[in-house]
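Table S5 (text form). Sequence records supplied for joint modeling of the two-component complex.
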Amino acid sequence: MLDLDLVVLHMEAETSNEIIQNLGALMLSKGYVKDSYIEAVLERERNLPTGLPIGDFCVAIPHTDSGHVNQSNIAITTLKKPSVFHSMVNPEEKLNVEVVFLLAVKDPNLQIQLLKNLMSVFQNKELLIKVRDASSKEEISELLSCLAQ
Amino acid sequence: MRKFNVLSVCGSGTVTSSMIAEKLKEAMEEQGIKITATEAKPTEALQLSEGGNYDFITHTSPLPKGNYPVPTIDAVGFLTGFGEDEFLEEVMRVIKEIESKS
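The corresponding structure-token record, covering 251 residues in total, follows.
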């Protein structure tokens, strides 16, 4: 089961920075990441953005180096209205992102299964639409149960 | 088994490069090809590829401009699943090209 404290339904945020700060604060409050994490993610997003176009649907997977992480986890939010993230493929391109996965990864070699599961989530558009339209945290946790470590 | 060394590049040098490396290993194993992957950041890519230990580069972040001595393959489609077949076709094309030279 995903940590429900890291799931936010229909977040109201004006910018991608605000989303990262809000989700990062949840990670920080649970001790999953270090104090340096949020700024490191914001900095990385400016230079190497993480918006991903998935057909006519976009997600973002902000993250940073493992040095800023204490314990691996994923924070997830659906948005009240789509937010602009820049594309991982082409950083100049703006994407209207509908679901954000903030990743904290401590040891990618140990967390390969989690990362693989995340890739299969991206490849399942029907599942992502259900996540986007979910009406409770429990529903999101259920839909994304494959991500639970 | 045929073996290839891949430099898997992403912005943090950890997260999406590991995702790509692992998925590529699995996909290539079905073809009888063993992939060994090393993860790296974009800033390290050129220098590492010049070291001569890698057969090709896969990347999920834009690579810095430079004269890469080995083929570079955009792997974002492999990450999202939109462009997965094209990515694997490109990998097979590169592998065949390498094999025809050796």
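Note: Helices of chain B lie at 15-29, 42-50, 76-80, 84-101.
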